[in-house]
TrEMBL record:
Domain Histidine kinase: 233-450
Example GO biological process: cellular response to phosphate starvation
Name the UniProt record assigns to this protein: histidine kinase
Molecular function GO labels: phosphoprotein phosphatase activity; phosphorelay sensor kinase activity
A GO CC term attached to the entry: plasma membrane
Xref: PROSITE patterns: HAMP, HIS_KIN
Annotated HAMP domain residues: 173-225
Coiled-coil annotated spans: 267-294
Membrane topology: Multi-pass membrane protein
Transmembrane feature ranges: 152-172
Catalytic activity: ATP + protein L-histidine = ADP + protein N-phospho-L-histidine
Cross-referenced CDD domains: HAMP, HATPase, HisKA
The entry's keywords: Cell membrane, Coiled coil, Kinase, Membrane, Phosphoprotein, Transferase, Transmembrane, Transmembrane helix, Two-component regulatory system
Length: 454
């Protein structure tokens, strides 16, 4: 479209320029002639002297590149450079107008001669118009030049158009090729091939897109691996107590005469395995809830001290059983916005662990203090401690330092992972320091800043 408009505009302006130039040129020549022709007018009768006129015109008419006619005021041709239509009445629009005093030029497209310009200029003698200088020139050469320009323009346009087309196709391909690769990769991802990668360099949008895609791909396969591991772990955890139950039940069935005491003993074991199953399933359900409730924490202004006191009260019988003393160190009441129930659960898991993994006669100390904009709860025990190499995994789902020992104490390995999840949801942090056979300290920090919560 732009090319077409440019073409038309350029063609038009060139044509106008050429023609205006010709017009001006021939009007000037006609004017000069008109001044000359006046010299051949008899002063007495105010008529052209034919002889003088002829002489004068012979001298100059060949200088003009066209046909020159001198017309008298009766519209008769009194001179014709082609010597053809002498003394014939000539009637053109231009001559009419010129006899009324106008200098005029017009272009016609004549069937026999092609583009032709008629130029007419009056011959004034004092206050009268005695005749007209009339020039008729062919503009064919002008139009040939203009057409040459037109053809050149057209040619350039076509070449430009072709070039643009080729370049556009090339760039379209350059852009669409990587998009196609990405689309293919995404389709594979959708079909389940999660570790699909695209290799595309460059810092442009496509490069960024492919890096984002690769990142997503890695993340997806990581999540998928976590999911598989989780399912495997869950199945394993559920399988172990089930196998025990099965084994206990089968051995009872196999023996024909069993004492009531043995029955009781086996049933007690079966019962405790069922409790363990229940505990695992509760923890799992809890975890699923937490995953779903992420953004649904029920924040309330809460005394952290009060929560800790309640936990200690409820766990006291267990601690008393093992002769473990629990101490709370607190200097001030600390109030922060938390989800009461969830924080209770998180701290309960940690304090319960402290009791569980501390031998008889041990001691548990709980510090509650303020540290900048954080409420800090430290749970220190004099228990088994956690080996260095296990510390990084302690908060992972199902991780237990010593499965055999933990079996006796019960538990699923989910407690710390749930606590970690709850505290992270509160934008807090949980850390552990531990020395084998000396004890462990769990440090929980919860933000005190209300703005952070809402
Ligand atoms: N206070 C602690 N002292 C020593 N070991 C601990 C303590 N707390 C947690 N652990 C270790 O971390 C593991 C994971 O804890 P947790 O997720 O609560 O699982 P569970 O208590 O059900 O085994 C425990 O099995 C135990 O080995
Ligand atoms: Mg636990």
């Amino acid at each position: 479209m732009a090319l077409l408009i440019i073409n038309i505009a350029v063609y038009d302006s060139i044509k106008n320029n050429y023609i205006v130039e010709k017009e001006v040129n021939y009007l000037t020549q006609a004017n000069i002639l008109s001044n000359r022709v006046r010299l051949s007018i008899d002063e007495a009768n105010r008529e052209f002297n034919q002889l003088q006129l002829n002489q004068m015109m012979e001298e100059v008419s060949h200088l003009i590149n066209g046909r020159v006619l001198i017309i008298d005021d009766d519209k008769n041709a009194i001179y014709d450079s082609f010597n053809d239509i002498m003394n014939t009445a000539i009637n053109t629009f231009e001559i009419d107008r010129s006899l009324k005093g106008e200098s005029i030029a017009n272009i016609y497209n004549l069937t026999n001669y092609g583009a032709t310009m008629y130029v007419a200029v009056p011959v004034n003698y004092f206050d009268r118009i005695l005749g007209v200088v009339f020039i008729s020139v062919s503009l064919e050469d002008v139009f040939i030049s203009i057409n040459r320009v037109k053809n050149l323009l057209f040619f350039i346009s076509i070449v430009t158009l072709l070039l643009i087309t080729v370049i556009s196709l090339f760039f379209a391909n350059v852009i669409s090729h990587p998009i196609k690769i990405l689309t293919d990769a995404m389709q594979k991802t959708a079909q389940g091939k999660l570790n699909e990668r695209v290799e595309m360099e460059g810092n442009d949008e496509i490069g960024q897109l492919s890096r984002a895609y690769n990142f997503m791909s890695t993340k997806l396969s990581h999540i998928e691996k976590q999911r598989r591991d989780f399912v495997a772990n869950v199945s394993h955890e559920l399988k172990t107590p089930l196998s025990s139950i099965k084994l206990l039940a089968e051995s009872l069935i196999m023996q024909s005469k069993v004492e009531v005491g043995i029955y009781r003993e086996f049933l007690i074991d079966i019962n405790s395995e069922i409790d363990r199953l229940n505990e695992i399933i509760d923890s799992l359900l809890n975890m699923v809830d937490l995953d779903e409730e992420k953004l649904n924490l029920n924040y309330e202004l809460t005394h952290i001290n009060h929560i800790v006191e309640r936990i200690v009260t409820s766990i006291k019988p267990l601690a008393d059983n093992k002769d473990i003393r629990i101490l709370i160190n607190q200097w001030e009441k600390i109030q922060i916005y938390v989800d009461k129930g969830k924080i209770y659960q998180a701290l309960m898991n940690i304090i319960h662990n402290a009791v569980k993994y501390t031998d008889n006669g041990g001691r548990i100390t709980i510090h509650i203090e303020r540290e900048g904009k954080f409420a800090v709860i430290k749970v220190r025990d004099t228990g088994h401690g956690i080996p260095m190499e296990s510390l990084p995994f302690i908060f992972e789902r199902f991780y237990r330092v010593d499965s055999a020992r933990s079996r006796k104490t019960g538990g699923s390995g989910l407690g710390l992972s749930i606590s970690h999840q709850i505290i992270t949801l509160h934008q807090g942090s949980i850390e552990v320091e531990s020395q084998l056979n000396i004890g462990s300290t769990f440090i929980i920090k919860l933000p005190n800043d209300i703005n952070q919560q809402f």
